[in-house]
Design brief:
mainly alpha; 2 domains; two-stranded antiparallel ribbon; about 5% strand
Length: about 100
Amino acid sequence: MAKISKTKEYAIKYLFNHEKKNPEEIASELKLPLADVMQIVKSVNEKSKNKNKITDAMIRHTSAKKDNNVSIMTEGAAQLSDEFIKNLSTKKQNLDFIHRPKD
């Protein structure tokens, strides 16, 4: 793969995601090899699959008002959040490094 500038990389991502163009059209428009465009499109697809699991389990769209102003935590999201909190290091080992002058 040849070195592609950040500008062209962002252009490929924009044309693929927002303009819904296929890789062949993008390659011809930007005058790039199809293999390079396909590699960037593939990386975009992989990143979209690896979203945050906790936020995917949240309900954002309300049926009554038809808007996204409220988030509702589902049972699955609560369990994932609890697991995340348990894995955080909240030990008191760092308290020895805090200097508190004696009165």
